[in-house]
Specification:
Length: 590
């Protein structure tokens, strides 16, 4: 049985393997990956052999190694017990661990386990310092295990090294297979941890102060970029899931000429533009508004205006800065809600920078809802960056260390983006889900117009070759007499044709299809069968309404005759007669 407690967010993995041994009852392994100043990374490997009896845990032996994957080597930092202690007296010099046909001590087996784990990181060399007390016994022990001495200066501690393949067999293979999951990829895990830590370090460095660079135009103006991280936990204890981006063109007197703000969702990989113009929902300053003075490095979808082919305005340049920051933070899509007027000029202007219409945009509960009539546009962050970011600003945008993320970002085609933005068609409700109301059928709105006569519509007549017996396949029994209604002749023939077609096509129809639903209505009354059939064949809606109207008139006439025979006034509309009149009125209004 293996217990695993991974914590990949902090670069820590820990495994525990319960076992039955004369010296220990469990093995515990801990991996800690950290980034270095030269960004090569290192990983600490710690192994404990512990004896647990009741509530007391005794440490028997301990080994720690440090590996550097780029140098392809692992160094044994300590072998004994933690806190620079020696091996426990119960396990000292006792060769009770069998591995590869030989017997080794518990400390030697733990060192072999550390080397076996290090071999998963593709390292080839093992190094250690033989801190001998002068007797030479420790050096002789390492020499028997396959180590060789390295050249040393007089008076220094002896360094020894050995190939990883020679030291790996001194640890039982069952220990490694019992501790490490089969799907564990050491190199991929360490690469992901280092990239995540480098990302956090670069983001933390960029959020410390405002990034600023000067501009040639306007005179004495500059660009200010601010990044504000948002944490999930209190007191900045959680992970960064959102980053607020702000970019502004500031004039000589610290006056904001243009300003852009956006919110990047790191967990959802998208960026949403909050405002483009100036603070307090204002437009860009008149001195920079509409002037294309910043040259763009590359354009994918060129605009029709020849002056805007290679240059953009200050506001669009800030939009490129926001897109570049979002792209370096890992966002893939850039969403914009355009508060345009009825002319649509502003939306068309954004479409010129490869923005396309979307159906609603992303779901973000923390953002205020946008206007329902405002166009929602989207584009790839990489595309917006290439179309809007000036070439002279590209190297000055912060988070330059994360530029490698742009090379691994997928860039789907515009056709794929268009297909994702198209809204899904509305699903029609089947007849089984429609609420049954007296005199109302499951029909489309355009077919519910009241007919002028009770004649069957010509487009509802089925082909003549389908006129067969109603009791076709399976000889389904007819509905009880109390459930049958007296119908006109033209409706009876249509019902017979409909039931015959449903009976012959039931076996070839998939489960839940309209045809099979019609076939299952042979046990119902003719009026109910015709009402349900109108859901599959909207052309019979008018006929169904006329049939309901006819049945209502017949029932009203029968009720009126009964009331006259009883001596009741014909103008009395209370009771069943009133209900029939109301039903006929609803049918006429429908």
């Amino acid at each position: 049985m293996r217990e695993t407690r991974p914590d990949e967010k902090d670069g820590i993995l820990e495994w525990v393997l319960p076992m039955r041994h004369s010296l220990c009852t469990r093995l515990r392994v801990k991996l800690v990956a950290n980034d270095t100043k030269d960004h090569r990374g290192k990983c600490s490997i710690e192994v404990w052999a512990e004896d647990e009896y009741t509530d007391e845990v005794t440490e028997m032996a301990y080994c720690r190694g440090m590996l550097c994957q780029t140098d392809s080597r692992v160094i044994i930092l300590w072998l004994g017990r933690s806190n620079t202690r020696t091996v426990h007296s119960r396990a000292r010099a006792r060769r009770v661990v069998e591995a590869d046909g030989g017997k080794y001590t518990l400390a030697e087996a733990l060192m072999g386990l550390v080397v076996s784990i290090a071999s998963l990181f593709k390292v080839s060399t093992l190094e250690l310092q033989a801190k001998d007390n002068g007797t030479g016994k420790l050096i002789d022990l390492y020499l028997r295990l396959g180590f060789t001495k390295r050249p040393q200066a007089p008076g220094e501690i002896v360094w020894m090294e050995a190939p990883v393949d020679l030291v790996t067999p001194i640890s039982p293979a069952s220990w490694l297979s019992g501790l490490m999951p089969e799907s564990f990829d050491a190199c991929t895990w360490m690469c992901d941890v280092l990239r995540r830590q480098q990302f956090k370090a670069a983001l933390s460095e960029a959020c410390k102060e405002t990034v600023r660079w000067d501009l040639k135009w306007p005179a004495s103006a500059s660009v200010n970029v601010n990044l504000t991280p948002c944490y999930t936990g209190a007191f900045r204890s959680g992970d960064v899931t959102r980053v607020l981006l702000e970019a502004a063109v500031v004039g000589a007197c610290e006056e904001t000429l243009a300003w852009a703000s956006a919110n990047v969702r790191l967990d959802c990989e998208f960026c949403r533009l909050l405002w483009l113009g100036r603070h307090k929902s204002g437009a860009a300053h008149a001195s920079v508004k509409g002037l294309c003075m910043y040259e763009v490095s590359s354009k994918i979808d060129k605009l029709a205006d020849c002056e805007a082919v290679t240059s953009v305005t200050a506001s669009i340049a800030l939009l490129g800065v926001i897109a570049a920051l979002a792209h370096r933070l890992g966002a893939k899509m850039f969403h914009v809600g355009v508060p345009d007027d009825e002319s649509g000029r502003l939306a068309d202007y954004f479409r010129g920078f490869s923005f396309v219409d979307t159906a609603g945009g992303p779901s973000d509960a923390m953002q205020p809802p946008s206007r329902g009539d405002a166009p929602q546009l989207s584009a790839l962050c990489s595309t917006v960056m290439k179309n809007c970011l000036p070439g002279a600003w590209e190297d000055k945008v912060p988070l330059g260390r994360l530029r490698a993320l742009m090379e691994f970002t997928a860039t789907p085609s515009s056709a794929t983006l268009q297909s994702k933005c198209v809204s899904k068609p509305r699903r029609l409700r089947p007849a089984s889900e429609a609420k049954e109301k007296p005199g109302v059928t499951a029909a489309s709105p355009e077919d519910t117009k009241a007919p002028s006569s009770v004649q069957l519509a010509s487009d509802a007549v089925l082909p003549s070759d389908s006129k067969k017996s109603v009791r076709g396949v399976g000889e389904a029994p007819l509905a009880p007499k109390e459930a049958q209604h007296e119908l006109p002749q033209e409706f009876s023939s249509t019902l017979a044709q409909t039931s015959t077609v449903a009976a012959h096509t039931e076996a070839d129809s998939p489960e839940g299809s309209p045809t099979q639903c019609i076939a299952q209505l042979q046990f119902q009354s003719p009026l109910a069968r015709l009402k349900a059939h109108t859901a599959a064949s909207p052309s019979l809606v008018k006929a169904s309404n006329r049939l309901s109207l006819t049945c209502t008139d017949q029932a009203a006439g029968e009720t009126l005759s009964q009331k006259r025979s009883k001596g009741t006034s014909a103008n009395d509309t209370s009771g069943p007669l009133k209900e029939l009149h109301n039903r006929r009125r609803r049918l006429l209004l429908s």
